[in-house]
Please model this.
Amino acid sequence: MGVRLIIMGPPGVGKGTQGEFLAERFGVPRLSTGDMIRAALHAGTPLGERVRVYYEAGELVPDEVVLGLIAEAFDGSEASGGFVLDGFPRTIPQADGLGELLADRDIELDAVLSLEAPEEELVDRISGRRVCGSCGLVTHVRAVGEDAACPDCGAALVQRSDDRAETVRNRLAVYRAQTEPLLAYYARSATGLTAVDGTGTLEAVRDRLFETLRVAEMAG
Ligand code: ADP
Model:
């Protein structure tokens, strides 16, 4: 049976990248509400049009929208063998909704991971983040330079529309106000909360996460 994990943390802490490492390692899908929302935006679906103003302002999209996306993913066969939830839940009502979805399906979480890094580091990581419009690579101007092409496929690298400086500050404020309370929520839950240092290289953080889960596995 695959693992069932939540990876939480502020914008820019590396949830997406590390969530992908975890998903690969355990052979389960990574379910990212941010990716689902971006897919709807790019495809111009009615749902995408409905959430565009929230997304571009760095605000959270309404709880019922993301709960609907997650319920759909759970009801497909995709997540039946386990999952890594990335960027969800982000509010107490979302966490309550997730609790109901899991209870209805007799599923228990194996771990809730909280990745942590200082705020200056987050702003730097996000404002320098670039994504490939063609293959989806996520990189940083530190690694590739300004105005570089994608090192993997040669297409143009672009900045995510919510990665502009004004929006980033709002996303961090929204995180502190609406998502941070979930750390205490999960710390009090039966699963508990496992904090992991998100600073250092991608590989260092990845190894720290793997080690944390291995230790948890032995203890459990
Ligand atoms: P980051 O964690 O770096 O902010 P994400 O891709 O997870 O990146 O989220 C980007 C944006 O997508 C958020 O600012 C918000 O507008 C929207 N979003 C993603 N997940 C959720 C969620 N669970 N609830 C509400 N809005 C969400």
User: Anything to note?
Assistant: Residues 119 and 172 are 8 Å apart (CA to CA). The radius of gyration is 17 Å.
